[in-house]
Amino acid sequence: MTTIDINALALVLAQAAEAEIRPRFRALGKGDIRTKADANDLVTAADEAAERFIKREVTAQFPGVLFIGEESVAADPALLGKLADAELAIVVDPIDGTFNFAAGVPLFGVMAAIVSGGETVGGIIYDPMGDDFVMAEKGGGAWQTGDHRPAVRLKTRGAAPLEAMTGMASTSFIDRERRARILSNLAKVAFVSNYRCAAHEYRTFAGGNLHYLMYNKLMPWDHLAGTLIVQEAGAYAARFDGSAYKPHHVEGGLLVAPDRESWEMLRREVFVD
Fold first, then answer.
1. Which pTM does this prediction carry?
2. pLDDT band at 63 (very low <50, low <70, confident <90, very high)
3. What mean pLDDT comes out for the span 61-87?
4. Residue 201: CB partners within 8 Å, gap ≥ 6?
5. Lowest mean pLDDT among 41-45, 96-100, 218-222
6. Domain assignment of residue 235, given as a range
7. What pLDDT is stored for residue 38 in this prediction?
8. Euclidean distance between CA atoms 237 and 256, whole angstroms
């Protein structure tokens, strides 16, 4: 059976960024940006070129592995259904934060998750602008490395009273009535924001700078790598019903907190049904 060297996979992400992403940043042509589902759901020539680069390298280096990329699934939606039963898969978001990238905002990342037997066992978030990685393997902790610096083990922030909590919440895919309740309840916490880039939100949480993350829509390329990384850094993460988040889940919401007690408080007081 093919095995995945996470460091080799990380290098592929960095090479894709160097070849296909950074040269196009703030240099996209008129025809290089298109909409998908709506005006806020964008794809650029850089997304597509980077995914082609990564897929080519993954296929060559890890033969037989199922490759699932955001843009590949956009072209062939049936591909996503293969993830649940895959023996070994690599799930890639070539540019997470495409809206920012297209707008010339340097807040985007390249993400990859390794899935084995229905579990996420590896996760990588690469920052093309900072040229460094946040990465984790199941049971091995979460680490920040790259840019010629020694690896640093990451640890999430400790618990805090509700009124002192700071975090990130994405309410875009929640029905209007529930969104209104959640937005009202967020007045109970100290701070809420949204980078429009899960890659950097997960990195910020894993680095000990936030108390919570909340998402409703769960596409695997957006959340598998980051969830494993924050868990390996010490976080408690679960779907809104309290169940574990698995690679095949695309709904049910996700809430991340420093520990289970904080998770339950946030679920009860803020992120209500």
1. 0.96
2. very high
3. 94
4. 168, 194, 195, 210, 213, 226
5. 41-45
6. 162-269
7. 74
8. 4
pLDDT at 147 over 80: no
Q: Decide if pLDDT at 188 tops 70.
A: yes
Which residues, 6 or more positions from 175, have their beta carbon under 8 angstroms from its beta carbon?
none
230 and 139 in a common domain: no
Spatial distance between the Cα atoms of 56 and 239, rounded to a whole number of angstroms: 33
Do 235 and 135 belong together in one domain? no
Which tokens in the block code for residue 165? 């909590």
DSSP-based helix, strand, coil % in the chain, nearest 5: 40, 25, 35
Given 153, 172, 197, the domain boundary residue is: 153
Q: Would you mind telling me the total number of residues written for the chain in this entry?
A: 273
Q: What is the DSSP string of 2-65?
A: ----HHHHHHHHHHHIIIIIGGGTT---GGGEEESSSTT-EEEHHHHHHHHHHHHHHHHHSTT-
In a domain, residue 1? The reply is no
Q: Which amino acid is at 86?
A: A
In this prediction, residue 2 carries a pLDDT of: 61
User: Residue 72: inside a domain, yes or no?
Assistant: yes
| Judgement on whether residues 208 and 75 belong to the same structural domain of the protein | no
Query: What are the backbone dihedrals phi and psi of residue 53, each rounded to the nearest 5 degrees, phi first?
Result: -60, -50
